[in-house]
CDP-alcohol phosphatidyltransferase family protein
Amino acid sequence: MLRMTFGAALSELRKAQKTAKGVSLYSRYVNRPLGRVFAAAAYAAGLRPNHVTLLSAAFTGGGIAAVALVRPGWLMAVAVYALLVTGFALDSADGQLARLRRESSAAGEWLDHVVDCAKVTAVHAAVLVSFYRFFDLSSDGWLLLPLGFQLAAVLIFCGGLLADKLKAKPKPQAQPAADAADAAPAPAAPPSRLRAVALLPVDYGVFCVVFLLLGSERAFLAGYTALAAAAGLFLAAFMAKWFRELSAAS
């Protein structure tokens, strides 16, 4: 079987995109298209989805290590941002490559989620280390900020993942088979642009942007604090939404 060229792979990927429902504007218009390019390049190079997942982990891990180990500065900030954003785009690319190669697997999905969980946990731990080692903080209370942000981020990630899995479980048939066959499926609602905008504060790609402020302690603290506050508010809203949806589905 002949391997597609980069251009042909990119064209196929454009036709096989997941729904944009529940996705922020950044992921829809920046991260997914960039991931699509990486997926096509990976396909042309003969890489497998798990290879791309590990590449994502390597780029993200490099950025996180730099936050913890290197004194903040403007050049360092740009390097960290580039590493984190590239890692995020590769995180999108592995799933797109799996669909293109028709190689989706439970093991690949597991590896992808493990890397995502490590990323969400480690990046805030690295900020905590950077605060302690390099920042001239007015109070030790600032050290609690990355811990709170980390807690909110992990709960949003794990809570959303678990809610999706539980909602996807097949329900018992509550109506006769004939009625079920006659029932027409409801048309899918178009993605909400307002929701896509509202989700920007908790989009990982937007979170990466705050690291461009690492050259200024005051600017980074302000940006990181604002996103931490947004994560706390969204956590409360998401938890109420997921609990309500799962209660209705049970």
Observations:
- DSSP finds ten helices and no strands in the chain.
- The chain has one domain: 6-166+199-249.
- The first helix runs from residue 6 to 15.
- Residues 6 and 41 are 6 Å apart (CA to CA).
